[in-house]
Amino acid sequence: MKEKLSVIKEEAIRQIQGADTLEKLNEVRVAFLGKKGELTAVLKGMKDVSPEDRPMVGQLVNETREAIESLLDETKDKMEKVAREARLREEVIDVTLPAKKNDVGHRHPNTIALEEVERIFVGMGYEVVEGPEVEYDYYNFEALNIPANHPAKDEQDTFYVNSNIVLRTQTSPVQVRTMEQGHLPIRMIAPGRVFRSDEVDATHSPSFHQIEGLVIDKNITFADLKGTLAQFAKELFGEETKVKFRPHHFQFTEPSAEVDVTCFKCGGKGCRMCKGSGWIEILGCGMVHPNVLRMSGIDPDEYNGFAFGIGLERIALLKYEIDDMRLLYENDVRFLKQF
């Protein structure tokens, strides 16, 4: 039995010294000390040893086990140390490098301007309504008192899907769809993307955004329109802002006007931004044409109202003093992180 234990010990030492990975070292541990290992088999054979020899054999078995376990643990510690040192060499960290930062985005200047306009009108009791960007010719033109031969329907100005469907040129079709529902009175704004067949330059784009407003009720006058837009201008550009209405023509409103505000840069004294005039044009407006009301199923003898349209990009350009519309869409982080 003593010779057998000596052979087991020598073989275990040989295999431990020959193991070059932790996996192989574990295989040696199982082969000699596991439930079905060679040393365990010797212990199971203790029943065949005479009673007077069992203490001595038991001591030899324990000494052999301790020797094998000690060598296994020592070898394992050496392997782990070598592996750890190799990993530290491979995973070295240069503490002089700048730390990684998470770039957190923020709202686009168009979004900031839109939310500000919405906040102002919602505070006045308006609701925000959206509609389709691909629109029927009827809602985009005819229901707005723009007949078939009108210049606004020219293919040079409008993107046509087919003869009856267009990419909307304004968000006014949303107003028509709302009027057709017949839920009066109406106080709404319709923000959204619109499309015109324009060349790209500092002030034009084939795709841009508009915010159109509509009020329909009994006994609405032009004075209501003026008061609404004056309050809007003061909240958007400052309490000292004044408005000026100039006669104009829009097919779907009568009378119509364009609205200027005192330059918020110079206070109306004249500067580069207002080109020395002291005034800046911001929107168009007017009283809703009776034909538009009639085509939408509203009696113009009982109800009337006003409408206005604001270019969102124009508001953003003016408010943040941006001199080129293209900057809003070039996704230059250096520009966008200013807002």
Tell me the CATH superfamily of the largest domain.
Bira Bifunctional Protein, Domain 2
Please give the alpha-carbon distance between the first and last residues. 87 Å
Q: Which second-level CATH architecture of the largest domain applies? A: 2-Layer Sandwich
State the domain count: 2
Sequence of secondary-structure elements:
HHHHHEEHEEHEEHEEEHEHH
The largest sheet is: 7 strands, mixed
Strand residues, percent: 15-25%
Strand order of the largest sheet: 1-5-6-10-9-8-7
What's the mean pLDDT score? 86
CATH class of the largest domain: Alpha Beta
- Give the proportion of residues in helices: 25-40%
Residue runs with pLDDT of under 50 for 5 or more positions:
none
CATH third-tier fold name of the largest domain = BirA Bifunctional Protein, domain 2
- Radius of gyration computed on alpha carbons: 42 Å
Strand count: 10
GO molecular function: ATP binding; catalytic activity, acting on a protein; magnesium ion binding; phenylalanine-tRNA ligase activity; transferase activity; tRNA binding
Catalytic activity: tRNA(Phe) + L-phenylalanine + ATP = L-phenylalanyl-tRNA(Phe) + AMP + diphosphate + H(+)
Protein name: Phenylalanine--tRNA ligase alpha subunit
Subcellular location: Cytoplasm
